[in-house]
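QA checklist item 7 of 12: single-chain prediction sanity check.
[x] sequence parsed
[x] length recorded as 257
[x] structure emitted
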Amino acid sequence: MPNLKITFLGTGTSQGVPVIACDCAVCVSEETKDRRLRTSILISYEDVNIVVDTGPDFRYQMLRANVKHLEAVLVTHSHKDHIAGMDDVRAFNYQQQDSIPIYGTPATHAALEREFYYAFAEHKYPGVPRLELREISKGEPFLIGGLSIMPLEVLHYKMPVTGFRIGDFAYITDAKTIEPASKLLLKGVQVLVVNALQEEPHISHFTREEAVAFSQEIGARTTYLTHISHRFGKHEEIQERLPDGIFVAYDGLILDV
């Protein structure tokens, strides 16, 4: 498998950090690592770029990371903080003169067809995004170029969310419950990215304690926490509460896997 370059485009919750009109210590912090766009990553290998989720900050994330081409989008689920920026895929349509494959479950695709109905209309307005929907199913690997990607299911309260494993790397966001079958698909993962919203219990997200326990159960060598809330604390404060091998991700962090 080729080496992967993972860029954290965003590591915040649905509201981002700082939160509008909030004057808490985290939201007024001048530390760069405390500023978090909505959660997304860029996976790069050879000459292929794959984005996981196109949230409300997608346009700015692409500009900030200087992304010049895009070969595919993987969609974890249909909540707005993960799909709201899909319209801006059209910039890549124009540059590449081609549609962009969008990989997701049937339920996710149905939501995209509702939210961005104009992109799927029989008579399309010129310039709408060209989205080629490609269906995926949990436990059934698919290829993008020569890269094999394994989708796996986690639960965001009762909502199915798709995580992805690529070789020794796995990316899971918005998880609260992970069934044994999905854990089995993660056996041998060396680098894990997983959501950890805050310290206090939450109905649909891992807490710090739950994320750490999950990482240790999987046996990942290195784990990065993402989908961070302003209620969790400042970046360095969170890091001080984590065991060896577990780190708080931040916007702009780059991993070589």
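[x] summary fact logged: The longest strand covers residues 147-156.
[ ] second reviewer sign-off
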